[in-house]
């Protein structure tokens, strides 16, 4: 295996693209903008799914499944939703193919045109709220707390593996509530679930905030988000949770009888995270040698590699390795013993480094004689020799330590890349030279936000929920401001 | 809740359609032929998925994800596959919508026509084998054992919830092997995994067999199947596993270097089961009172219903109920305590009967005084009084007993509905009056198979793997036959 990975400092974007492919996470497919998620990448996604699914169920949600297709007319029903979502979509117009006149190729059967075109879902608010109309009559039917794991399609012109693909996998929660207060609390709760997941499971520090009107989800009253910072100083929106007010209930006429018997429209939320998180994972932790995976997300947490000459050594070393594997597995640790005789230890070391396996254990003849193991950790690339009596607890502790260390490292990087600026020159200077989040006063208008974007490509990532009240003047217009917002260039 | 469920004896088909909707499993959506899988139905599907996924991984398979869309031209590459799969499909022709001249509705943007139409996958052999070309170079890359959980679309004209829907959920395994022997063994192994799953997890007895040439998967050399029998005497194909030979490898030019360095085409299999299994589950076990679920698949295995007057009784009974719930949960049993005060016990009993909850426990004031519980089992609709000291082990044993009892009941029904016939009059008589599988000699020709289908609507469900060698004469033509095959009307 030849790594030949571009260095991050040379070309961060190229490094990312190469790493995703070389580490067997994903690759481009024959279909423009659609990716193939390879088994190693999918195994990481499955771990994310399992943990998120557990968290959703723990907070009272159930899974369901709604149609892939949405009738075109549904998108006209919620006015602001049309512009945001019904533009760059895959449109199904026909339902049959036929053999062409050449007898070999196939062509679309012109007689099989749909009366109404179907849109491949870019998000499912419309089809779900059309369904909820039949499910909700009374306050007893509320809250309705539903999540869907699904594929969605948005016809993106410029795509990048995981970060922006025409088809991607995600979960979308869609809830219905009797009161505004409950719906807002749900939207906030799910933002908190996402933040908890990102930080404690993915080891990615995030800032919780709300989006400006300009960056809000199409059809939302308020969009909550978690924003992460990548190693190149660009921000990445890692999850959003929307308070939708009564917009979709009104568009699809979903009313309920409250306890007093009065009819009212239902209050809604929706929230989602996607395979984009795979991109965030790679770009937060990995290095010039390859992937670095937090132990929680590693499909293989520990790999054991034997170093031997001849069958006799191999057998003695294998016995030790297998015993260690069994003891680690008892603790719920995922272990692979790589005893392939088709590849040399050096090749294997490079392969597992590239694939981000957190802990590598090597056993050679000296180790066998001394009752030791060589333990290498992926994040720091350091090695130590551990005696047999301590090995299991050592590895178990090490995995926990690495999970925490990766979070702290990312947190330090993030915190050192939030810069307060008070002039537009400083603003541009930080963006040019230091990158990261820029904390600046803003006059609260969309016009200013768009002007700054036009001049610098930086957007307002969020108004942090924990920002302090601080009177100031807008970094661009000088108009009054009640507090700082976070700008950054973003994925 | 009003059940008003049509009786099976009155109209089996109507009973099924009503039950699926009333038991909250699924419903039709606004999109023709596409269903909504409701939370209760989806929870059952999740249990199927989890068990199948475990079985696939135990047999060495990994999950991956391939694109939803397939370029139209791919379907022309494997000749027999075209006719079987590229006909009734959803075809994406455009990638953008725009606001219409009225400023309100939206329409397809005629300038956004795709150069090549994309087909929403009806099955993924073509896109996957196109991908495998890049993954397989040498025998070291084999076997490649991959599964995908996905949605697929086949534009069916007549649809029925779960049994035949335009969009459905499934898993599709796609494996690549160095030798024919290995590929055949894989196809057989997966048929056995499906049979094991159907029988031991779903409590549905199945017959393992191979399909005739006529009923084979488009592009397969051999199709293995498991066939189940529904309560109305119609057969249902519950899963298929295909040995694809080198057909797809040749169509997509997937070669490998064997150990001797010689190039050869790869050998393939594919295998799948779908949400159709939900239909099989309902039609195998349920009765005129509603769903009957095997404990393995029940989202709620035990429900506890309190019967009380006044707060004081309620509190004492709730304390007992919660203690029982905690003890059962420790054993991994899923328990719901339904203490809603908005519904009476009789209403709750009817609801859980309809939804097929295996065990219902009621606690009233007399039970409290006597230290007893009333335990009702869903399959036999029988009740007994159990003393407190025995309750946990009683319920735990009962769940196991019910799982076995449901299988045995279905097995007896199935076995009593396999009829050997030797004349075509007998054949028609059984089909008309007794229904079920008809075991008959057949001359091995597609012409006879099609003629019988035309005359009786019965098809050859399979050639059972365990059929005995028995010379005979075809029930229709009188031509020689080497063994009996199983005919039936089928879903």
TrEMBL record, chains A, B:
Q: Is the keyword Nucleotide-binding assigned to this protein? A: yes
Any one GO BP annotation for this protein: prolyl-tRNA aminoacylation
One GO CC annotation, please?
A: aminoacyl-tRNA synthetase multienzyme complex
Q: Which reaction does it catalyse?
A: tRNA(Pro) + L-proline + ATP = L-prolyl-tRNA(Pro) + AMP + diphosphate
The family database entries (SUPFAM superfamilies) matched by this protein are listed as: C-terminal domain of ProRS, Class II aaRS ABD-related, Class II aaRS and biotin synthetases
Limits of the Aminoacyl-transfer RNA synthetases class-II family profile domain: 27-294
Where is this protein found?
A: Cytoplasm
Determine the domain of life of the protein's source. Bacteria
User: What is this enzyme's EC?
Assistant: 6.1.1.15
| Keyword list, A-Z | Aminoacyl-tRNA synthetase, ATP-binding, Cytoplasm, Ligase, Nucleotide-binding, Protein biosynthesis
- Name the Gene Ontology molecular function terms of this record: ATP binding; proline-tRNA ligase activity
Quote the Pfam families the UniProt record gives.
HGTP_anticodon, ProRS-C_1, tRNA-synt_2b
Q: What is its main location?
A: cytoplasm
| Keyword Metal-binding listed | no
In terms of PANTHER family, this protein maps to:
BIFUNCTIONAL GLUTAMATE_PROLINE--TRNA LIGASE, PROLYL-TRNA SYNTHETASE
The text the record gives for the protein's domains is:
Consists of three domains: the N-terminal catalytic domain, the anticodon-binding domain and the C-terminal extension.
Outline the subunit composition. Homodimer.
State the family it belongs to: Belongs to the class-II aminoacyl-tRNA synthetase family. ProS type 3 subfamily.
Q: What does this protein do?
A: Catalyzes the attachment of proline to tRNA(Pro) in a two-step reaction: proline is first activated by ATP to form Pro-AMP and then transferred to the acceptor end of tRNA(Pro).
Please give the name of this protein: Proline--tRNA ligase
Instruction: State the organism of origin.
Output: Flavobacterium rivuli WB 3.3-2 = DSM 21788
User: Gene name on record?
Assistant: proS
